[in-house]
Design brief:
- It is a single chain.
- The protein is α/β, with parallel strands linked by helices and about 375 residues long.
- It folds into two domains: about 30-130 and about 300-370, Rossmann fold, CATH 3.40.50.2300; about 135-180 and about 240-295, 3-Layer(aba) Sandwich (Rossmann fold), CATH 3.40.50.
- It has helices at about 1-25, 40-60, 75-85, 135-145, 165-175, 185-195, 200-215, 220-230, 250-260, 280-285, 300-310, 320-335; strands at about 30-35, 65-70, 90-95, 110-115, 125-130, 155-160, 180-185, 240-245, 270-275, 290-295, 350-355, 360, 365-370, 370-375, 380.
- Strands 7-6-8-9-10-14-15 form a seven-stranded mixed sheet. Strands 2-1-3-4-5 form a five-stranded parallel sheet.
- Strand 11 (about 350-355) and strand 12 form a beta hairpin.
- Helix 2 runs parallel beside helix 12 (about 320-335) and helix 7 packs antiparallel against helix 8.
- The radius of gyration is 28 Å and the shape is elongated.
């Protein structure tokens, strides 16, 4: 009798163990990861994999499991890897990295893709852009404009492949701009366009006319006045109090140089630009300071870089920080929702505080609440 009881008891324990193991597997959040692991962009992909591993270590939960697959930065390979993930029962994927890789992902309708791109136009319905898009940046610039009671802002947009994204960002953020101008990045054409925007020729002629008038006048102090005028380039003001430059790197510096040439100074007008990822070269360009821009939280970025370097002995790329945060966001949403419904949680309104800042999730869109910075006197200062 005792033997039968023991056998029944052990069988029951074994059944409970099997059931619990099954439930544990079912309750796991399986996340796919679509990144380039071979080809020209392999190093970017490998760093993203490392960042997600770091996130799992910090979360310290067995509830999440990540399955990386190679995209080779190729739309066809991306599709085949996405199909493989779908066949594994995965319905939520971080990636791909590049916009071009999204081309055929609408063929895998059961899967939601959290792409690391910052482009938001013409996305497949099952792709959510999680990069720092133009709307997030313009929302932050809008806040700065309101705080400083800036009345007339113009926005300068390069004729490049992201100009439509900027237009969409202007529409979504509802930022009020006095005028919008599109410019050619070729230096000679750019300078001519900036001259026109700032009425440079008229203001220059105003100076010449005033010097001529004084020379022909009987004003006893005319020599002193003429001497002072000769130190200037123009007379007259421009019809705006801030300029928002939607550009980066050397192209941004070319626009600023053209503005300085036309006698528009950041000492008198606000120079505002887009996220520069704390480009240190801007701190050396003292003539273009102060200059303002939105960005991720600098302290958090520094902490992440130090943690990443300590773990892997190398500096991470910027999308690594984003992928690290996305793992945390998914874990946060998994705690609030049924695991099987986790991909649908992006339709609901929620907010999540990550390393980048605060994610606002609503209607399959992700926007970021960014910080705002000023570069002045060679130093970077946080405004808010």
């Amino acid at each position: 009798m005792n033997k039968i009881f023991i056998i029944l008891f052990l069988s029951l324990c074994n059944l409970i163990f099997i059931i619990n193991s099954s439930l544990s597997i079912e309750n796991k959040v399986k996340i796919g990861l679509l990144v380039p692991l071979s080809g020209d962009n392999a190093e970017i992909g490998k760093q993203i994999v490392k960042a997600t591993r770091l996130a799992l270590k910090d979360i310290n939960s067995d509830k999440i499991e990540i399955f990386p697959k190679d995209t080779q930065s190729d739309p066809n390979k991306t599709l085949s890897s996405a199909v493989e993930l779908n066949q594994m029962g995965i319905n939520l994927v971080i990636g791909p990295v590049f916009y071009e890789s999204l081309a055929y992902l609408d063929e895998v309708k059961e899967v939601t893709f959290l792409s690391l791109t910052n482009k938001t136009l013409d996305l497949p319905k099952n792709v959510i852009s999680t990069g720092i898009n133009s709307t997030s940046q313009l929302n932050t610039i809008k806040k700065f404009i309101k705080i400083n009671k800036i009345k007339k802002s113009i926005i300068l947009i390069p004729n490049l492949n992201y100009d439509l994204e900027i237009k969409q960002g202007i529409k979504n953020s509802k930022i009020k701009t006095f005028k919008q101008y599109y410019y050619d990045i070729e230096p000679t054409k750019l300078t001519k366009q900036i001259e026109k925007i700032t009425n440079y020729e008229i203001r220059k002629q105003n100076l010449i006319d005033e010097i001529t008038r004084l020379e022909n006048s009987e004003d006893p102090t005319k020599e002193k006045k003429i001497k002072n005028l000769e130190k200037r380039y123009t007379i007259g003001n421009v019809n705006f109090d801030s300029v928002i430059i939607a550009d980066f790197d050397e192209s941004l510096k070319s626009v600023i140089t053209s503005l300085l040439y036309t006698d528009v100074s950041p000492k008198n007008k606000y120079f505002i630009t887009f996220n520069q990822w704390f480009d240190e070269s801007l701190t050396k360009e003292t003539a273009s300071q102060p200059i303002y821009y939105p960005s991720v939280n600098k302290k958090n970025l520094k902490d992440f870089k130090q943690k990443f370097f300590k773990q892997f002995g190398q500096n991470p790329n910027h999308v690594s920080l984003l992928s690290y945060d996305l793992v945390g966001l998914i874990y946060y949403l998994a705690l609030k929702n049924e695991v099987i419904e986790i991909n649908k949680a992006f339709n609901a309104r929620s907010s999540f505080k990550g390393k980048i800042g605060i994610f606002d999730v609503k209607d399959n869109k992700v926007n970021h609440r960014l910080n705002f910075y000023k570069v002045e006197d060679g130093l970077l200062k946080e405004i808010f």
